[in-house]
Every structure is written in structure tokens, then in C-alpha cells.
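Run log, item B.
One chain of 194 residues. Sequence copied directly from the ordering sheet:
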Amino acid sequence: MIQIKAKQQNVSFEKNVEKLAFVLSAHLYNTLDSSKVIEEAAKRSGISTGVIKAAWDAAGEVIRTWATEGHNVPLPGLGSMRFSVRSKSVQNVEDVKTSLISARRVIFTPSKEVKDELQATKISITCYDKDGNIVKRVTSADTNDVEDPENEGSNGSNGSSGSSGSSENGGDTPSGGGDDNGGGGNNNGGVSND
């Protein structure tokens, strides 16, 4: 089950004005150390940890090398990964330069199996007031939409996480531009604030 926090906080951008709203974000656990993942893979496969680690390191090096060469690299059992950039657009070719790039990005596209598993996973939301007290618990009855970074305009049932005004490489355009938060929306752990 995916654990979500809904914390009441001030969302007003005006000074001395309080506008409280419940903001959703994923409850993240500790980041697992790679050695723990390797040990678990060794147990499940019957292959020694040394062999698994050597394969893990080699695969990581190949993925990193090919991705930085511009390839969309498959991640077995997970999906694929590629690098991209977020940048400003200009009208004149004379103005094209590397300083237009505002961010280098890693784009992970989950496989159908990963998306199906995520879609089938139930969500539990714990609501906290502004003082940190639990005020409600909810179990999901949502549409279970799963974001597809390769098709940003179709994220969720209302497309609110889509990249408004973004170019194919995730770039900003004069009409408003995208940002790393999914085109103006606050993407907290993959949950829309709507």
C-alpha cells in the first residue's frame, strides 16, 4: 500500500495572508543502500552476492554510458531511462547557446508491468492539521491513473500534471513554459494537489 500524507499548510503567496489547504505528498521511507538490494537479489536468485554486485556495477556503467550518448536505455524489468534537458526557446538561430539550458534531466519511463502493479496498489492517505495532529484517514477509491512521462499531456484523468507550454525536450516556451514540477502544478510524490 502506498502511504500518502495530506498536511494542512499555508498556500498563500500573499504576505500576511493565510490560506490553508491540505497538500498531498508521498510518505517516503529511508533510501535503501545498494548492498541491501544486492543481498536480496542474491537470495532470490541463488547467485552469489559477488557475482550480482559485479553484474550490477557493469549494468550501471553501460546504462550511464549509453544514456549520456543519447540512447533510451532499457532497464530490465523496470522500463527505460534517458537524459533530456529543460531549456528556454529563442526565435533567432544566433541566440542558440548552451546557457539556454536551465536543467539536465533524467526521464524514467516505467514498463507496462510496473505501471500495472502501481495502478493495482491501494493508497492510504493520512490527513494532518497545521499542528501535526491526525484528523482523518482515507483509503483510495481513485481512478488509479499512472503518469506516463513519454505522454505528459495524458497524465491523470484531468491532465493537471501535464507540461503546459513545454517543448518536446522539456523546454520552457514563451507561452508559460514547464518546470520540474510538472508544468506549473506542484508534483509532490506523483500526487496532484487538485
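Observations after the first pass:
- The chain has a mean pLDDT of 79.
- The two ends are 21 Å apart (CA to CA).
Flagged for discussion on Thursday.
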